[in-house]
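residues and backbone:
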Amino acid sequence: MRECCWPVCVMLLLLSGCDLAPRYTQPSIAAAPTTFKESGPWTPAQPDDGAYRGAWWKIIDDPQLDALEQRVMSDSPQLAAAVARYDEASALARRARSGLFPQLDAKASAARMRTASPSTGTHIDYRDYAIGASVSYELDLWGRVRNLVAAGDAEKQASAADLAVVKLSLQAELADHYVQLRGLDAQIVLLRQTGNAYDAALQLTMKRFAGGAASELDVGRARTQLASAQSDIEQRMADRALLEHAIAVLVGEQASVFSIAPEQVFAEPPPVPVTAPSRLLQRRPDVAAAERRVAAANSRIGVARAAFFPAITLGGSGGVEATAGTLFSAANRVWALGPAAALLPIFDGGSRSADLDQARAQLNEAAADYRQTTLDSFREVEDQLALINRLANASQREAEAVKAAQRTTQLANVQYREGAVDYLQVVTAQTAELQVRETQITLQARRLTACVDLVRALGGSWETDSGITIGANPSQPAIR
């Protein structure tokens, strides 16, 4: 009998190495270009090699933004929820891995029982005591458990990348709001300065009107211009309040008690070094998450295929049981050893076939999502590079327009005081100057926002010599 068991054991060991999941290959995508199409004269640069690459927002060089970014990482409810999702995925992965090990249970019982004698019909009362342990282990003949573990590990890695996505998105969203808020601060300062100039022009026009050198029409135009500038200030302050409230939510604070002091200083857009596009696939956390979900879906096909084959669970138990006398004696020992369960599927109405088709469809869906994510990642980088380059050129032209508009306003004011032109010429010149100066501030804010969005598109900060670096490895993020 013992000799007959050896072939069976050898066969089971050989079958335990069987894996019904398809061999995993990363979905193919279009070959990455060697350079970004939108790289231009404004993007290449040599960054400071001593700068800390993880805190990418330091490219804006604003201490208050640095402090707010730290608060996002410590107090954001959205980040806390993402951390909880990562912890959940880690727990599910550990649960799947537990199937690789035997399950051991201890048991004890004490019962008072009554039975009837078949021959005499009398009742017999006795007590039954038992103490023992049992062990069970599923033979992973078809790789079901191993594929569950592989799928769980891949989902955990995808969740880690999702956490990195949330972290980067919150940082970028805060930086976007902050840049827009500082842009509004600069516009409010400009409008107040312009309002003071308009008020002085109104006073001058009223004096000229009183002296008969100007018409009431000139006074009306001056009043209209001043009131319009004051209205613009209130609108900008309303927009600023909304951005301030949005930042409060990001840092986990109530909008009613949160405020950011206005500042006149507006950071200059930093130079943007760019590396090879192929590195994008190695550092974008959403690309990493999409690829890991393809791997998880591939492993689940193995789980679905294993359901077509017999499932065998080995079991064993041992202990002591007695109805009388000493419980812990050799005569009261009990044990059992053998297959605890053997399930051979025969007919299920197509349920397992449907599960397999579902698993295959989920793999195709995950592969398509991965390809779409990679295409989107290259497009987003190209978009931001195009904005950075074109807006830099636009800013240069706008600076020339500002100088020309300021000179025109000066000339118009001088000619108006001398009576050479009417006030309409002054209004036209001042309105044009205000527009180009506001556009200059808007362009500066858009360039900063484009830099922030480029960081988001690249998955983190940039580097020229050793490739792009990110603050945290997507597969092993710093989540605490």
Remarks:
- Confidence is low (pLDDT under 50) at residues 46-53, 463-480.
- The CA atoms of residues 46 and 273 lie 7 Å apart.
- The domain at 103-139+311-344 is CATH 2.20.200.10 (Outer membrane efflux proteins (OEP)).
